[in-house]
Amino acid sequence: MVEARQQQSRSQVGGTAAHPGRFRALLGLSLGYFMVLLDTTVLSVAEPDIAQSLGASVGGLQWVVNGYTITLAAFLLSAGAVADRLGAHRVFRYGIAGFGFLSLLTAFAPSVGLLIALRALLGVAAALCIPSSMAMITRLYPEPAARSRALAAWTAISGVGLASGPIIGGALVAFAGWRAVFTVNVPIAVVVLVLVTGSRFAAPMTKRRIDVAAQLLAGVTLALLSGSLIAFGGRDIALATALGVAAIVVAAALVVVERRSDSPVFAPQILRARSVLAGLIAGAAVNFVLTGAIFALPLLLIQSLNLTPIQIGLFLLPLTIPCALNPLLTGQIVARYGPRPPIIGGLALLSVGSAVLTVAVADHFPTLLTAMGLAVTGFGVSFTLPALISAVLSAAPAGTAGSVGGILNAVRQMGATIGVAVMGALIAAQQTDAGGTAAMLTAAIIAALGCCAYVLLTRARRSGLPG
């Protein structure tokens, strides 16, 4: 009897190791993340149709993409704290419901301006979903090995969004136009809400404060920086300079606010760990390359090969398929050897793949070379991200899983936003294959720098320094 009570008590600590409905919950959480990622990749093949339908320029398309990632990054900074304070299960459901409803509205956007505004609101809803889902997984799977496998499954299922996005998007655009790519989110949101309904999925709440001022300043900083890069790509040097200076001023104000805050967004106890800092740098590098490439490649393929949306989706499959299939293997590697080897190896592959794509773009996309570059890049992403999530969550101080998850994903989206802005600006500024070559070369350099930073920071930690 005493042993049975002890087992029951252990099952209740941290989120029930023997939770009877946790597979159902994991499926729902994974589908929610799938929907968020699908909304990113499904839009890539719709870019030409949006440009033609609404008269959007390259800069306008950058804002359609970055309107989503800017608000996603900004609100992710506090969404983790919101999940900790209000309960991850409740925040996740609100986010999913809002995402489905806003997706339906977005499908009827009559202009580029309104499309950008609705995409920005979708980013807010997505921000509520991601750290809350990570916090729920941490609670449902408190055992490190089981959590690594659960996170790998979460990443694999959601990675199908990356793999299927270009194909689904290409088919929808071909048969019904770009507006159809948003309606697909509505039935997915309904299924997710059904899977995670029930009091048994409830998570504890804390009394963490939310620093609204810091969140807003971070969002404004990122928006100004993106605007500066986009203006530079459009050769409006005066506007680019003004926005860049404004970004620096607002960033300085953010630093002041953070230092004076009783509940800073970038909590010192979280960032003090070298493993967390290394993970944030690596996460930003991965999303810079991945999102920047997914934005840039369709534009370059249209320019060089005049492909249709479905053909673009098929062309990108070597990049996206590994993101769906490989995370399960990565989870096994992490469970056995730890997260460091796949993170370092994945970042190295990401750099090599981007370098191969640099040569492919310069040579007008030879099929074999392009497929090789895309596949190596895809395997780099799929080795890095599941291991990265596991490493950062494992290093999170007690009671901060939601906050750490929010910061990690916010930094990743900052990397994505800057990736789209930088690579898009290089393409827009030159309007030739040289712009695409410069964009992919920049991605290769960023991935290499991220790999070096991760090696150095984690090596210092492993040699005995505090971290």
TrEMBL record:
Keywords: Membrane, Transmembrane, Transmembrane helix, Transport
GO molecular function: transmembrane transporter activity
TM region(s), chain numbering: 21-43, 63-82, 94-116, 122-141, 153-178, 184-203, 210-231, 237-257, 277-302, 308-329, 341-362, 368-393, 414-432, 438-457
CDD domains cross-referenced by the UniProt entry: MFS_MMR_MDR_like
Keyword Transmembrane helix: yes
Record InterPro entries: MFS (IPR011701), MFS_dom (IPR020846), MFS_trans_sf (IPR036259)
Source species of the chain: Psychromicrobium silvestre
Domain (Major facilitator superfamily (MFS) profile): residue spans on this chain: 25-462
GO CC field: plasma membrane
Localization: Cell membrane
Official protein name in the record: DHA2 family methylenomycin A resistance protein-like MFS transporter
Membrane topology designation: Multi-pass membrane protein
Entries under PROSITE patterns matching the protein: MFS
